[in-house]
Hints:
This protein is an all-alpha fold. Among the domains are: 79-177, no CATH class; 212-322, no CATH class; 473-590, no CATH class. Helix content is 57%, strand content 0%. 47% of the residues are buried.
Amino acid sequence: MAPRDPPPRLIRVSIAISAAVLLLFAPPPGLAQAQQPVGAPIKLTPRQPDAAPPEQPPPVAPATVESPPAAPGILVEGLADIDGEAVGLLGPSQGGLGATMWAGTPRSLVENLLPRLPASSPFRSAQDLTRRLLLTAATPPAGPARNVSLLALRAQQLEAMGDIAAASALVDASPDRQSSADLARLGFERRLLAGDVAGACAVAGFVAETSVYWQQSQIFCQSISGDSDFASLGLDLLREQAVDDPPFFALVANLAGDDGFALGSGPATPLNFALLMATQTPVPAWFVETAGPAVLAAVATAPTVDLALRLQAGERAEQAGALSTAQLAQLYSSVNVSAEQVAATPLAAGFLAAREYTVPAARAEALRIAWQQARAQGYYPAMARLSVDLLAELAPTTSLAWLAADAIRVLLLTGGGDRALAWYRLARSEAAFDADAAQAEIAVWPLLRLAFGDDEQPMLAWDSSRIDAWLAVVGQQDPAAANGRAALLLALLAAQDQPLRPSRWGELVATAEGPRATLPEAALWFALSAAAAAGRRGETVLLSMIALAAVEAPQRQALILALVVTSLRQVGLAADARALAVEAAVMAGL
């Protein structure tokens, strides 16, 4: 915006400061009539609708409506009948974990463990299951509350994961949405990151909270609306409180006409991002390096941000689940990426190189190179997600049998089980004539067994000799990693009740070399085992996701993964357990 002359210095006397405290939290002019949105909570009854849940938050209704119209796939009842902590966006038919998922779990445990949920996970299946846990409509756990809102904890965890839209929709669905500054903060930040400054300031105008966060929010809104005098008083108050946020002070000063400000470094908050956009200040590199998933997604989709930073932010946001893979691919496709920028972004380089080839053999070779480089450099899952659509354009033909093993791994990692079976049939049919196909058929049989188990796939019927063949191949290919990979595979198979012979464990111990597997914390082990055995679904998922936070190298955390897979199966989440087992196996290089 155009710079303006700075306001005259105001005399800071005690009366003026007292008045400023009152005026600081008044809504900006023209925004006092804004309404808080109302969502549509799920009714906690056994019956659920057949319609799919909406991808966007429920429609906004005026705050005076007592029973808002239902969004597709969501049942509502009068707001007076709704427990504010019980609302959710998912019922059982929509992927929710069930209205009774907290039965038997003390509230104190949930209050303590929800903040320990990891904000990100290398496992896409874990990200999905965490979101479903947080969005499930369920009766709150029994027990006394310690002045903590479970709804706020759930929404805060969703925000930390970068799913600020879901967090806001969850809050909008609750009758308690106007009673908590923590809940209002989610709506405020969602609007900031979407570029809706007026809507964000309308939310801030209704908050009577005097914390530093809301002081900064009011100063931002006053500066945007031209109330520089009040904003200046607010800044003085913040300085007296020794608030440490150099970018905020510098950017607000710029809004008031100070062109000689030094940005400095500080927290990469949604508010500071909105200030960078409002002042047209270039986003610095440190901002992207320290930002959370939601802010990263906003940076990636902001057209005025430096392209190299957008690509960096987009890749990190996609890996955290805050930006869809399709959005990242679109970012690569819609901008003019220079050779230098591609070289600095290996993920983009591999994807764009493979996309350029239309001849099947050339496309296949480019994909294999991209996958190999991605695995070596630690971003294989992201490359698999990005390239799966390119792989879909290749038919599993005889001339491409050499690609079968790589194609199957990518498809299993990205949920393409049926297409993975087509490539496996190709490998089986060519095994007698093609050495690569024969090795692929041996290498991927255990992975497919993890993915499909006994699901009426005759070609995957249990055969102990298949495990012997796989162990032999792994031992020849990479002797140093063979024991760790074998331990992981056998542990995951055992967790799915596959009929391994008992002597296999002794054989594995006899050949063990190198670092020992990491053990889970004893308390976590017994707590998770007890919750699963008792069928406490919500508690089991909560503890499982916390346990998975310790997994960095799957081949060294076989015990943790096996425990989680076993526990999820015990509480009726077999499909989720299977997805996690396959993902862990492929990521470990099996």
